[in-house]
């Protein structure tokens, strides 16, 4: 009894597995992000809240004295960006959940099995979530500015659509929300717990600034407010400030320019992102 010889292709045993390109990783993260109903609802709620608060402020605003043209533009920017104070909470929570949700369900193991180097997966998450948040936020802020413009003339404010500083503030507001979101994503990568990531992000954005303001009020000193100027929420707020004809700050007070606020907030994001990337490589999934 003879057995037919089996022939193996000489290169079959050494054929490399097809690798997943970074474009494929980006596409995978995009599918994850937009396929979750919670993500879509969070973005929708962000837009509705920001436009709603803009209309609320526009409808109740009043001034006892006539406003200069610059002051009127400043009011319009305030109306367009007032919802950012509330939108940042939603974005921060969503940013933390983008990564901690995968750790909680164990889906992160599948992600790392497809992307063994891990860093491209984290970078793809940051890019997809950051760009999406920026676009949605820009629609919300610019949309609020455009939709409330017809309401403001009755309140003594004449919006000037040709003022580039207004639209620059709108872009800055969208950039602020995007950076807050990806910073929270980095914090979530470090902590790997949904509750812990959300608590840390909101504590940095809300709780610590309140504590510093209380200390400044109780001690009647300036140093807590100077520290506050470098926290994410305060520094980032300078990104959407209308700075034309802005009064000079009091002596010994640190006030950042919009570009300085951008650099400070970008530094917070980079610290969270780099810390998360390092720990992601060192810890088990």
Short description, anyone?
The chain is mainly α.
Question: What features would you describe in this structure?
Answer:
The chain is an all-alpha fold and 285 residues long. The protein has helices spanning 22-35, 37-60, 69-81, 84-105, 107-114, 119-148, 164-191, 194-219, 223-228, 232-237, 258-282. The protein has one domain (22-282). The protein has eleven helices and no strands.
Task: Provide keyphrases for this structure.
mainly alpha, globular, disordered N terminus
- As a whole number of angstroms, the C-alpha radius of gyration is 24 Å
Number of domains: 1
Helical content band: over 70%
Which structural class best describes the helix and strand composition? Answer: mainly alpha
Low-confidence stretches: 1-18
Binned strand content: under 5%
Q: Count the helices. How many?
A: 11
What's the arrangement of secondary structure elements?
Layout: H1 22-35, H2 37-60, H3 69-81, H4 84-105, H5 107-114, H6 119-148, H7 164-191, H8 194-219, H9 223-228, H10 232-237, H11 258-282
């Amino acid at each position: 009894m003879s057995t037919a010889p089996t022939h193996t292709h000489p290169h079959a045993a050494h054929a490399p597995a097809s690798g997943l390109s970074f474009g494929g990783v980006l596409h995978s993260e995009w599918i994850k992000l937009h396929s979750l109903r919670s993500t879509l609802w969070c973005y929708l709620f962000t837009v509705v809240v920001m436009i709603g608060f803009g209309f609320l402020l526009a409808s109740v605003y009043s001034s006892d004295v006539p406003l200069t043209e610059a002051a009127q533009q400043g009011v319009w920017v305030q109306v367009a960006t007032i919802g950012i104070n509330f939108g940042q909470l939603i974005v921060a929570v969503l940013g933390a959940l983008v990564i901690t949700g995968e750790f909680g369900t164990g889906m992160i193991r599948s992600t790392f099995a497809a992307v063994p180097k891990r860093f491209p997966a984290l970078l793809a998450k940051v890019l997809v979530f950051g760009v999406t948040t920026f676009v949605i936020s820009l629609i919300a802020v610019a949309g609020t500015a455009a939709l409330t413009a017809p309401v403001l003339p009755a309140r003594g404010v004449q919006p000037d659509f040709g003022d580039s500083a207004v639209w620059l503030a709108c872009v800055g507001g969208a950039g602020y929300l995007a950076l807050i979101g990806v910073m929270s994503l980095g914090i979530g990568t470090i902590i790997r717990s949904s509750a812990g990531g959300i608590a840390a992000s909101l504590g940095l954005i809300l709780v610590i600034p309140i504590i510093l303001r209380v200390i400044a009020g109780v001690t009647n000193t300036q140093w807590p407010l100077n520290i506050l100027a470098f926290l994410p929420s305060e520094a980032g707020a300078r990104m959407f400030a209308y700075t034309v004809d802005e009064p000079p700050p009091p002596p010994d007070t640190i006030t950042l320019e919009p570009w300085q606020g951008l650099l400070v907030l970008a530094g917070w994001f980079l610290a969270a992102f780099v810390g998360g990337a390092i720990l992601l490589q060192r810890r088990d999934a």
